[in-house]
Design brief:
The complex is a heterodimer of chains A (about 450) and B (about 180). Chain A is an all-alpha fold and about 450 residues long. Chain A is built from 21 helices and three strands. Among the domains of chain A are: about 90 residues, Cytochrome Bc1 Complex, Chain D, domain 2; about 50 residues, no CATH class. The chains are: A mainly alpha (about 450), B mainly alpha (about 180).
Chain lengths: ~450, ~180
Amino acid sequence: MKKVGNHNSISRILKFSLALMLTFSIQLFAQDAVTPAPDAAATATPAPSATGDAAAGKALFNAQCAACHKLDAKMTGPALRGVGDKYEKEWLYKWIRNSADLIKSGDERANKVFNEFNKSPMTAFPQLSNADIDNIIAYTMEPVPAPAAVAAVPGGDQGSVQSGGISNEVILGALALVLAMLVVMLFLVNNVLTRIAKANGLEVAKSEKSLPIWKAFAKNQFLVLVTVIFFLLSSAYFVYGWFMQVGVDQGYEPIQPIHYSHRIHAGENGIDCKYCHSAARESKHSNIPSLNVCMNCHKNISEVAESTATPEYSKAFYDGEIQKLYDAVGWDKANQKYTGKTQPVKWVRIHNLPDLVYFNHAQHVTVGGIECQTCHGPVEEMEIMKQHSPLTMGWCINCHRETEVKLKDNEYYKKIHEELSKKYGVEKLTAAQMGGLECGKCHY
Amino acid sequence: MLFGLAVSVTSCFDSKSPNYQFFPNMYQSVGYETYAESDAFNGENQLKGQTAQVPPQGSIKRGFEIYDYENSTAGYELAKLNLKSPLDSISEKEAAKGKELYGIYCAICHGEQGNGKGKLVEREKFLGVPSYADRPVTEGSVFHVITYGLNSMGSHANQLSQHERWLVTDYVLQLKSKL
């Protein structure tokens, strides 16, 4: 027998809960201190600009410019906050309508930014009117919104506790108190009653001295036999249960090098599983995405929105995890460039069949048309990935016995379907009837 | 005592580390596992310490066709003008596949209808995705953009084979004509 990986010692758990309690108490105070702040931030909304409608500008900006520009950070193009001060209106009209012309005309400032950005051209927008551009500029001139106060909660890292937990705690405490009071009251009432009884001259019936219960028990041999058998059977049951779970890693959820959340990606944002696990369509293994796939989105998404943070994981924590991704691919956020210094991410493998088994994703996902969730569970709700199914032989076989094969539109199965349905006298075939129980299909 | 029992039982169960295994004699073969750490590759141009290697330079995979347009603005313009799809007729099944692939890889940003309103855009996570109607795209340029990406859109060449990219291209043009 061997144990893969190492145990968590109890002392670590203790330490962890201590830390948990500490952060919890800090949070209690911090929340008191912080609550008034958001109101202050909310009232400080910027005054509407006199020259353009910032709200309309925001819509235009998001639709047309956000592919290359952000307000406060460099992307394909420069950060745009405050460009209205940098250039005069006429220049901006010309630049935005057709920057290439302006550059060709030899305008000094135009050529300077153009060279600064490696001569990457900006799309021309001849369709924008002066008013549209004014609106966009008004949007870029808005002051930086005050950082929301929630981010200031200290200890908002791993161990912080749900604020919803507070009310639960209070309720539990109150319940315990009530229970204790009841017990005390019962005791008191009992006392009072006996005293009244004594005062009235009544004798409280003394229980007759009998054999101690265990002696009586030991005398009754039949009862002893039954109990022994009961204990033997039940311990056998537990031992059997324990042996049967040896080698089964159901529920295994290791800590990954990057806290990547399927809940946020596949759940809230609805990204298709195969966007990342694209090899599941056509190969034995379903791949873990390479980091360039992550960068398809994360070149642009360098931090999470306020609303993404949960009581358990703060925004600062999530942003830190995205930064880990950047460190691994070697992406320099400030300059929007790859540095070339990469570092493979060591994802911990969760699902792992022994090498004596052959399992193929393409066969199940593409040919069989089985949803990922059938085997992997509600992945789109998992903050931390875990093994949902036991992955035992019984589990595979059960499903092969129960699941019908999708024969429609599959030329490959035409002949075998005719023969087998004659043989078994059924219209629909299960995977088992097609040979899904033969040892050689799953074992090398 | 009950408490002690409870602690000793629960402390053995830890979902953060794998379970015991019973005589795992044939569980790990001598061969290297996919994506595993290993010291098998130590050569000059190899990635050390891992089994996932980049193919040697100049090697091409089976069925690969060389793509001659380079990843630059000039390459994009050339592809837009000259590149034509090698698929002359697309069967119904293949067209359905193109649609499915578009749903997996593109709709999250570009929207099911190609109007630039995918789920990420609606949720304001990823902005600046154009509607196909606003862009003068051709067969060649769409293929080029899927292969190399364009500005903040990334390359999808490692998720889609060449053939699949042409199917998706065809579907994009269908969407554009409907917008």
